[in-house]
Amino acid sequence: MIKTSCHAVIALVLLAASTPAPAGQCSPGGPVQIGMFSAVPQPEHNSVAFRLPTLATPAAAAEARPKSLEDFEKLYLDTERRFRLLSREGIEGVMEKAYPQLLKLAPRTELEMEYIHAIQFVSRDRGFALDWHGKLHATGDRGVTWTERRIPIPQPGDLSRQAARPTTLPAADFEALRAMQFLDERNGLVVGHRGVMQTSDGGLTWTQLGSPSRKPLATLSCQPDQTCWVAGAETGSVFRRTPGSPVWDRQATPANGPAGEIQVLDGKTGWLATRRGEVLVTVDGGEQWRIQQSDPAADYWALHFTDAEHGWVAGANAAILRTEDGGRSWSPGEVVLPGDVPAALVRLHAIRFLDPRTGFAAGLNGIILGSTDGGRCWYVKRFEGLSANSLTIYALAVSEGPVLWASGNAGNIVASLDRGQVWFPVHGQALDAMGVIRRSLDALDTPAAPARRK
């Protein structure tokens, strides 16, 4: 991670709060929520790279835990208010005090760096989040608390015996679960480097379905009747499985790049975005796929349609395209970035819309963009800074309310109750770091006890 000084942090806050006017049709952006978690300045005399903690300290665990999302939001806003009122010297003092505790809690191995690649709510209260090393997080209280259960992922040899075709994946690549979809509170699938796994009891137990592909899977889309499509690194291939069938049927596509994201709306009409800048469409359940949009210089990671007409794709270089006619034509959106943030450093991993006008895109360095005009103009709603790769976001979700959700590196799950204006942590490093920072702020506010007379 890039080392961050106090001076750089303050400059970042000021620049992000007053974005210059763009050259296009969109107006200048408003204030940007700068996450205090990456704005944590590392003391310049310390040569050890700063990383946020993954596990709560005993002191943090002893604190009264919020009992609702509204409590989490109040806690965050209070912490942020106190943090922002500090002078540069005050920030340095707080972080000097917090730094030793944060450093002790830094991840020691990659397994401790939870990469939550998928998040989904199937009801107001019930949700799931998937860590790529095989840990399923589940909540039954609207995201206030999360339980963890390990998914028993097959070993390479086991997967080869179950695969429709022999897999050629090296053992080192069998670490990642990339995508997840639950149809209800009990039935769900996960896919990744180790193929496909299925649960029918809410993630308590899992059945191995093998892998239809010789290469890693990255995305899936399922219908209520459990017809599912999966795709991944195998160029020119989508695989479909019908209810009750043990076989995945390969569907050939004209794609020239690996899959970014697939979505099938009604069992017939669906789209596929690829990492080679392609958008493909099918109108017959995948029997035939054709290319609607192609830009070989682009890299599309994410795709989302709210209905058969309105859709969006997003990817590297802050690229976002929109369609209002089912993909027959695509137009680029305009992303208004802080003046010191080049588009080349903005890679978007996820895009979700609440309705045809209101949507969000998220990716590297904790950036979250928002649009209220159908994707024509995009403004930064949350940004952790260019040095905050450990706070990258991989997935977005929406639950009843609406409540917006984002998940990513370091076990972080953040939520918003106000349609994306304020995002606050409910799980992961950011939540733990907030506890450490609050205790440092409390110590700063508490006057030292007078010395005893001898």
Folded structure, characterized:
The protein is α+β, with helices and mostly antiparallel strands and 454 residues long. The chain has a domain at 1-113 and 298-445. It has six helices and 30 strands. The protein has helices at 6-17, 58-62, 69-84, 88-104, 156-162, 429-445; strands spanning 33-34, 116-121, 127-131, 135-139, 147-150, 177-182, 188-192, 195-199, 207-208, 217-222, 228-232, 237-241, 249-252, 259-264, 270-274, 278-282, 290-294, 300-305, 311-315, 320-323, 331-332, 334-336, 348-353, 359-363, 368-371, 377-383, 393-399, 403-408, 413-416, 424-427. The strands form seven sheets. Strands 1, 22, 23, 24, 25 and 26 form a six-stranded mixed sheet that branches. Strands 2-3-4-5 form a four-stranded antiparallel sheet, with no helix packed on it. The model is unreliable at 1-23, 39-62 and 158-174 (pLDDT under 50).
Q: Strands, helices and their partners?
A:
Blueprint: H1 6-17, E1 33-34, H2 58-62, H3 69-84, H4 88-104, E2 116-121, E3 127-131, E4 135-139, E5 147-150, H5 156-162, E6 177-182, E7 188-192, E8 195-199, E9 207-208, E10 217-222, E11 228-232, E12 237-241, E13 249-252, E14 259-264, E15 270-274, E16 278-282, E17 290-294, E18 300-305, E19 311-315, E20 320-323, E21 331-332, E22 334-336, E23 348-353, E24 359-363, E25 368-371, E26 377-383, E27 393-399, E28 403-408, E29 413-416, E30 424-427, H6 429-445
Parallel strand pairs: 1-26, 22-26
Antiparallel strand pairs: 2-3, 3-4, 4-5, 6-7, 7-8, 8-9, 10-11, 11-12, 12-13, 14-15, 15-16, 16-17, 18-19, 19-20, 20-21, 23-24, 24-25, 25-26, 27-28, 28-29, 29-30
